[in-house]
Amino acid sequence: MTFDELLAASAAAHGHLCPGQVVGVRLALLGLRLQGMAVPPTLAQLKDLIVYVEMDRCAGDAVAYVTGVRLGRRSLKFADYGIMAATFLNLRTGRAYRILSTEESRELAALYAPEETDKVRQQLVAYRRMPDSVLFRVQEVEVELREVDLPGPTRAKATCQACGQVVRDGREVRQNGRVLCRPCTGGAYFRRPREIVWPEMNWIPSAGPLWPLRPSSAHEDDHDQKDSPD
Q1: Which site in 57, 144, 176, 213 is 20 to 30 Å from 49, CA atoms measured?
Q2: pLDDT digits over 123-152, tens only?
Q3: Rounded to whole angstroms, how far apart are CA atoms 103 and 56?
Q4: Sequence-distant (≥ 6) Cβ neighbours of residue 224 within 8 angstroms
């Protein structure tokens, strides 16, 4: 694949082409190159690769697409830092490189694509032309990956003593001598949870069409509700 072909494929998977896609594809290519891996990584290389993405933006999808890492495989980790950066860890060698997109690259877009007057178009062109040294900073870092964070089967389970929910892979919280899930400690991203009963929850895959009712119907009808014990 040429760079343009790879970018087009990544943008198609993501849903649109944008400057973040260009940055993400290039960031992933640099990360793979630093680890001496192919594009795309071979199966053996993919088993050794863990990638931490620090932003929930377009570039994150591009990094995942180019490298082949996935949340479901536990090879893609999300660190919600709000930073345009990603870290590439090689499990076999232990080496890890954190790559950060520079703010200077945005400011220098006009210099690298002076013929473009539209800001987005200017970034699209400029980010293709910039050398890696302008577009990125690279840090060699140390990453301590716990055994429960490795790809493969669940290695640890705990039961929340407040709600009974099973918590996997060491994500439980121990508070005042109790084992709790994070929502029960008040650390959830949601609030005021309440259980609902929806008639269509009796559906099974062999029971007919994929969506027997419009998804919105769950909110249009009256439902029995009860407060959560949390």
Answers
A1: 57
A2: 999 999 999 999 999 999 999 988 888 888
A3: 18
A4: 196, 197
For residue 56, how many other CB atoms are within 10 A of its CB?
A: 11
Write the DSSP string, 118-171.
SHHHHHHHHHHHS-HHHHEEEEEE-----GGGSSSS---EEE-TTT--EEETT-
* pLDDT for 93 beyond 90: yes
pLDDT value of position 211: 59
Structure tokens of 153? 């089967």
Residue 172, SS3 per DSSP? coil
Note the pTM of the prediction, 2 decimals. 0.80
* Residue 35 identity (one-letter amino acid): Q
Q: What six digits make up the tokens of 99?
A: 């790559």
CATH 3.30.1330.130 domain extents, the chain: 3-149
Question: 146 or 7: which carries more pLDDT confidence?
Answer: 7
Are 87 and 97 a contacting pair, CB within 8 Å?
yes
Buried b (16+ CB within 10 A) or exposed e, 106-140: beebeebbeebeeeeebbbbbbbebeeeebbeeee
How far apart CA 54 and CA 86 sit, in angstroms, is 6
Q: Is 208 helix (H, G, I), strand (E, B) or coil?
A: coil
Q: Any idea which fold 3-149 has?
A: 60s Ribosomal Protein L30; Chain: A; (3.30.1330)
Output phi, psi for 175, to 5 deg: -135, 120
Residue 110: its H or E element: helix 109-112
CA-nearest of 130, 75, 141, 79 to 101 is: 130
